[in-house]
Fold this sequence. Notes:
The complex is a heterodimer of chains A (205) and B (224).
Chain A: H1 3-29, E1 47-50, E2 57-58, E3 63-69, E4 72-73, E5 77-78, E6 88-101, E7 106-117, H2 126-134, E8 136-142, E9 145-146, E10 155-160, E11 162-174, E12 191-203
Antiparallel strand pairs in A: 1-6, 2-6, 3-4, 3-5, 3-6, 6-11, 7-10, 7-12, 8-9, 8-11
Chain B: H1 2-36, E1 40-44, E2 48-51, E3 57-67, E4 73-75, E5 91-101, E6 109-116, H2 121-128, E7 133-140, E8 143-146, E9 153-156, E10 168-176, E11 180-183, E12 186-189, H3 190-198, E13 210-217
Antiparallel strand pairs in B: 3-4, 3-5, 5-10, 6-9, 6-13, 7-10, 8-9, 11-12
Amino acid sequence: MKKPTRTLIASSVAAALGVALLLGGAGSLAFWSDSSTSTPQTISSGTLDLGSTSEVKIGATPTIKNCTSPTSCSASGAYSGGPLVPGDVVTATVSIPVTLIGQNMKARFSVAPTKTAGAVNTTATEADTALASAMTITIKKVEQTNFAGVADAAQSVILSSTAKRDIPVTVDVSFPWGATAGQYNDAMGGKVSLGATYTLEQIPA
Amino acid sequence: MATRSSKLRAPVTKPVALALTALVAAAALIGGPVTMAYWNDATEQTPQQIESGLLSITAGITATYFDLASASDVASTVSAPSAQGLIPGKRGQKITYTLASGSGDAVQSRILGSISAPATSVWTEIYSKGYLAVNAETVGECTVNQTPGAPSWVIGNAPGQTLKPGESCKVTVTLSIPAVANISGKNVDVSRALLNLRGSASLNPLVDFAANATLAQVPRAEEN
Lengths: 205, 224
């Protein structure tokens, strides 16, 4: 066999052996290894929830006072639910159950007052319509946040993650005294249905 | 032909698929901020019904005649005109106005009103010559003050006085004509003088007194 031929054969054998060693090492021989599987970690999604209508409750006894101007009012007393007259301001606190669960959970809690002339599911009379027009609902306070008090305007606060708890919302229901005698005479004997829509909306943390 | 058709279809399928994918992606992007990308919840409070109260006034009138020489009154009856009318020195008249706040009213109120009569020439003459004696007094939650120099009155309330629901204010106007009036130091036979003024001795209405009044709501801070 000529030298170049021997050299070529020797090189081929060496290369083949090298490949075999490399392959074998990768499989089981060249280094140690071990493996284990961790206990599964369960990730839960959070919760954003407003209580149902039945859970919404009126807090401490509503109070009533009579004001001929913003700075001239009678002393407050317990409101027993009787008919309102011009100047009356009824203050009530409603508790809204809220649940916000999640480390980065933040939400805007909004309260939008609503009023409808007449009793629920009845045709409004002229007095009902006049009363609904005259009366105002003002959100005064949501939890610890006080508001300047814009009549019939929605208000909102930002809430952070919390287990289920009640958010107190304080509202004033006002029947204005009027600028002139008899201004609201057409609202005598009227009925109005007052309510509110509560919204909880997630915002970026 | 079929082969050609199939070749034509192939390039069309890709753009359609791409368009659909884009559409779905766009819908997901648009829909996300509104309803899908974050959570929200809402609830409505059960409406609470509020009612407004009332403030009302009712007015009534009664008239009685009385014998000037007696303390007893005689009820007025429309069907017996001969029993009515002022007779100088003989018969006087009392007119009582009852002004009441409604029993179902929601507030206390103050009253403001008047009692007056149209100024007919004969009536004015009789009064101005001093032939007519008039007086008004109240029972209940009001006061009455005569307008100086005129047979008319203003009804009101004393300071701090209010009408509670169902309460009333009664104003009685008493009218009489004396048989003889002393005018400027002279005794005048009023019967004759009236006959001369009216031109007739028959029953003839001289005047109609009318009362009108308004109740105004009292701020609760001023209720008593």
